């Protein structure tokens, strides 16, 4: 083989070795950085752009794709201790001609975190309304989607601001009052009674606790490498004190059952999506909502837990699209 060709392979091998070694080093030493890069890359691939908007001195961070058109815009509210990027797995399967907005909830990720902020469900609803008005998203009624805590906020928002919302999708929402507590809620009450707030299962501080949380929230048993678990924990640990404060606020007497107390005020067409094997919030909540909301469709997903968005993103996207088409066609027929 010609010496120049040998040199070419040596140089090429060395060039390839550098990014490979960098990737391995990041994976082993800085998994949290790798996770951030992963979300950045996914947003870029899906065409989601990050922007900031301010209401007085309060900053909201959000991502969006598309522009408002004849179809309703879609505003998506994430759950407790998550962020706007949790919706990316669903966004992947949504049509690109829809106007999508995913906002960081109060105190999360790029949205302002203030010790003076009202973190109750009512307080969060008011903040989201400020965000909506900043974007003028309610210039035309929009479709509101929320999951878990975000579902509770979405449901109460639809009750408080009915003219803003054209239709509603609640994915295993919190805020309902059950006749009997499931195992998870019983454990939470025991922790509250013993004041052991450091042990809240939804606020992991070790890779082992992160693994337990994933098993609690998901029916599908994901095999997550130890380094990724460590990265997920590293990303969360700086925020855990805030998460504990927020958690105690949303399970307080003021907020715990706020969706239940307002569900009969929801008048827009509503879709309920719930995993049948949800261990966090019992699936019987879907029936409660269906009995209280006049125009309501219920979709129960087999072999699916609380993390519907993560476990069944394609199905979730299809259900949302089909529901929007149904509501849109129904509205058009009323106009004919």
UniProtKB/TrEMBL annotation:
Looking up Gene3D superfamilies in the UniProt record yields: alpha/beta hydrolase
Catalytic reaction list: 1-dodecanoylglycerol + H2O = dodecanoate + glycerol + H(+); Hydrolyzes glycerol monoesters of long-chain fatty acids
Identify the residues that the record assigns to the AB hydrolase-1 domain, covering every copy. Answer: 72-313
Q: What is its EC number?
A: 3.1.1.23
Supply the InterPro entries for this chain: AB_hydrolase_1 (IPR000073), AB_hydrolase_fold (IPR029058), AB_hydrolase_sf (IPR050266), Epox_hydrolase-like (IPR000639)
UniProt keyword Membrane present: yes
Lipid bilayer topology: Single-pass type II membrane protein
Task: Give me the segments passing through the membrane.
Answer: 6-39
Query: What Gene Ontology terms describe what this protein does at the molecular function level?
Result: monoacylglycerol lipase activity; phospholipase activity
Broad enzyme group: hydrolase
List keywords of the entry alphabetically. Answer: Endosome, Hydrolase, Lipid metabolism, Lysosome, Membrane, Mitochondrion, Signal-anchor, Transmembrane, Transmembrane helix
A GO CC term assigned to this protein in UniProt: lysosomal membrane
List the subcellular locations.
Late endosome membrane; Lysosome membrane; Mitochondrion membrane
Pfam families listed in its UniProt record: Abhydrolase_1
User: Per the UniProt entry, what are the Gene Ontology biological process annotations, in alphabetical order?
Assistant: long-term synaptic depression; lysobisphosphatidic acid metabolic process; monoacylglycerol catabolic process; negative regulation of cell migration; negative regulation of cold-induced thermogenesis; phospholipid catabolic process; positive regulation of lipid biosynthetic process; regulation of endocannabinoid signaling pathway
- Write out the function statement from the record: Lipase that preferentially hydrolysis medium-chain saturated monoacylglycerols including 2-arachidonoylglycerol. Through 2-arachidonoylglycerol degradation may regulate endocannabinoid signaling pathways. Also has a lysophosphatidyl lipase activity with a preference for lysophosphatidylglycerol among other lysophospholipids. Also able to degrade bis(monoacylglycero)phosphate (BMP) and constitutes the major enzyme for BMP catabolism.
Q: Which family does it belong to?
A: Belongs to the AB hydrolase superfamily.
Q: What is this protein called?
A: Monoacylglycerol lipase ABHD6
Q: Which gene encodes it?
A: ABHD6
């Amino acid at each position: 083989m010609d010496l120049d060709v040998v040199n070419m392979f040596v140089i090429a091998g060395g060039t390839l070795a550098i990014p490979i070694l960098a990737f391995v080093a990041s994976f082993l030493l800085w998994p949290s950085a790798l996770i951030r890069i992963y979300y950045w890359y996914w947003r870029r691939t899906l065409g989601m752009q990050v922007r900031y908007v301010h209401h007085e001195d309060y900053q909201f961070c959000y991502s969006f794709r598309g522009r408002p058109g004849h179809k309703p815009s879609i505003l998506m509210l994430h759950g407790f201790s998550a962020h706007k990027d949790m919706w990316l797995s669903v966004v992947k399967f949504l049509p690109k001609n829809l106007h999508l907005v995913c906002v960081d909830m109060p105190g999360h990720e790029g949205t302002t975190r203030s010790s003076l902020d009202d973190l109750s469900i009512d307080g969060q609803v008011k903040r989201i309304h400020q965000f909506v008005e900043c974007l003028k998203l309610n210039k035309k009624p929009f479709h509101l989607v929320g999951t878990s805590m975000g579902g509770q906020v979405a449901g109460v928002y639809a009750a408080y601001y009915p003219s803003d919302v054209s239709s509603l999708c609640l994915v295993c929402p919190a805020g309902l009052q059950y006749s009997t507590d499931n195992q998870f809620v019983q454990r939470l009450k025991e922790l509250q009674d013993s004041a052991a707030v450091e042990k809240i299962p939804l606020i992991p501080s070790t890779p082992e606790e992160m693994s337990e949380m994933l098993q609690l929230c998901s029916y599908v048993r994901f095999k997550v490498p130890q380094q990724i678990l460590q990265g997920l924990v590293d990303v969360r640990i700086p925020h855990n004190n805030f998460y504990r404060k927020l958690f105690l606020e949303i399970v307080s007497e003021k907020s715990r059952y706020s969706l239940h107390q307002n569900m009969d005020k929801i008048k827009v067409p509503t879709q309920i999506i719930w995993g049948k094997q949800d261990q966090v919030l019992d699936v019987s909540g879907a029936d409660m909502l269906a009995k209280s909301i006049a125009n309501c469709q219920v979709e129960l997903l087999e072999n699916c837990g609380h993390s519907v968005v993560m476990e069944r993103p394609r199905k979730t996207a299809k259900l949302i699209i089909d529901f929007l088409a149904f509501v849109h066609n129904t509205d058009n027929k009323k106009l004919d």
